[in-house]
Amino acid sequence: MDMQHQVVNPCIGVCEADCHGKCLGCGRSRQERYLWYRLSEGEKREILNREGVEPLLPVGDARHSI
Fold it and tell me: Name one Pfam family in it (predicted).
């Protein structure tokens, strides 16, 4: 596959989940994070295009900067 079209892992290294299992760093569910490298490019795009999949921490949060 062309590297230009690969879906990049949205992980920002925070890896903390809220009470619903949604990651505070990338907004994905536990299952989505666990299965990420097994998913097809299309499945990854569907997850990232879904409403609400984005970092949940405010940009200035100390945990956001690594």
Answer: DUF1289
Give 10-residue mean pLDDT values along the chain (66 residues).
75 90 90 95 90 58 48
pTM of the prediction? 0.68
Cα-trace Rg, the chain:
12
CA 41 to chain centre: 14
* Cα separations in angstroms, 44 against 1, 49, 51, 62: 14, 9, 13, 28
- Tell me which amino acid residue 49 is: N
